[in-house]
Design goal:
Elements lengths: L29 H8 L2 E13 L17 E13 L4 E10 L1 H9 L7 E12 L2 E9 L19 H5 L4 E10 L4 E8 L15 E11 L2 E12 L6 E13 L4 E14 L7 E12 L4 E13 L6 E15 L2 E12 L6 E9 L5 E8 L1 E12 L1
Length: 376
């Protein structure tokens, strides 16, 4: 199965500049200083344990949650921002932990367990807002931030289709309470790389709609060209997300993606398309239920396609407003019964009295996971 892992990070670090005016008032704590300066600060810590039923192999097609039979310190994230509705502002967020090293590795930035996800300056006037720097994508239903992600694991679409971070400039304009339009230009569309080694860029365009109060719809498209002279890789990515709030306790959502590589790059003709359906229900003040069903098809040019289905169920226990415990069961299967998921090793005779050991694969994989999240 041809997978294109991409991830992105979320978190924050910043300087407390411009807070001198707080000295004029009695200092009763950091929160008072922040409130008076207009700066907000939020953060979280997350750690997990996961085991897969695949003879010790890493889970196939997974990134943040690929490691099995191990305790993992996933994320320590903090976001610091000052984003007034008029004038200049800024936001910085960073992430530290095992997920950060995966993100850095995905973008060729080494193996550091510290990663800057977002760092941008903002200017707002009237209905217009412009940001410049590094920022997360508009696309997709799921997010990098563990404290806001609906499940422990991320969907295949999140990892194999969605450009989760961009570096560039984005403008948004709120026409009214029903329509907000977006237009931007950034570096590489798919990878979201912080750096870029050529002059070719990606165009971002989209619209967020709220036709009725319980329903929100986002439609976004990214078209880009990347690569050096004579090797231009064109990419087009189209994303639709619709969420409907049935009641204060129940929400359903759909996320559809279509990604295509074409042109003269290294992967012309590759297509990734799929749909994911989500449901959540707050059973009591302490217990919430969440589910996800997903279908993804990857069509490599000149090779057999893979069609993967995933089924995920998650129970969320929240003994305090700032503390969540997530328990998840997930099952992935290849619809075409190809053996694409790692499953330990197999040993066969080499015909000369010896043996050959090689990786083994199967057409499905399952796992269970537990994650704790503290928010502050």
């Amino acid at each position: 199965m041809r997978t294109h892992f991409k991830l992105l990070s979320v978190a924050g670090l910043a300087c407390f500049s411009g807070i001198a005016s707080a000295a004029d008032a009695p200092l009763t704590g950091l929160s008072k200083v922040l409130d008076e300066s207009g700066i907000t600060a939020t953060g979280y810590l997350s750690a997990s344990y996961q085991t897969g039923f695949n003879n010790g192999s890493a889970l196939g097609g997974r990134t943040f949650d690929g490691q099995t039979d191990s305790f993992t310190f996933n994320q320590a994230g903090i976001t610091i921002s000052k984003l007034p509705t008029e004038g200049f502002g800024a936001l910085v967020n960073v992430i530290a932990g095992d997920d950060a090293s995966i993100i850095n590795g995905s973008y060729g930035d080494g193996s550091s367990k510290f990663n800057v996800t977002q760092a941008f300056v903002q200017y707002a006037v009237g209905g217009l807002t412009v940001i410049g720097g590094r920022y997360v994508t508009l696309a997709g239903y799921e997010v990098i931030n563990d404290s806001a992600s609906p499940h422990i694991s991320r969907s295949f679409l999140f990892q194999n289709a969605e450009p989760l971070v961009h570096t560039g400039v984005r403008a948004s304009y709120k026409l009214n309470d029903l329509v907000t339009g977006y237009l931007g230009v950034a570096n590489s569309a798919f990878s979201g790389a912080a750096s870029d080694d050529n002059k070719l860029k990606t165009i971002e365009a989209g619209v967020a709609l709220t036709p009725i109060a319980p329903l929100s719809v986002g439609i976004y498209d990214y078209y880009g060209i990347d690569g050096g002279s004579g090797s231009h890789q064109k990419t087009n990515y189209f994303d639709v997300v619709a969420a409907y709030k049935i009641s204060d306790d129940a929400t359903v959502a759909l996320n559809g993606d279509y990604l295509r590589y074409f042109g003269q790059g290294s992967t012309p003709g590759v297509e990734v398309k799929g749909i994911a359906a989500y449901g959540s229900y707050q059973l009591t003040e302490l217990v919430g239920l969440r589910g996800r069903v997903e279908y993804v098809k990857i069509d490599p040019n000149g090779a057999k396609s893979d069609s993967v289905q995933t089924y995920t169920g998650t129970v969320v226990f929240s003994p305090a407003k700032s503390f969540d415990i997530l328990a998840e069961v997930r099952y992935d299967t290849d619809k075409k019964s190809y053996s694409i998921f790692p499953n330990g090793t197999s040993t066969v005779s080499n015909g000369e009295g010896g043996t050959i050991t090689s990786p083994a694969f199967k057409d499905s994989q399952g796992d269970v996971a537990l994650k704790v999240i503290y928010k502050f």
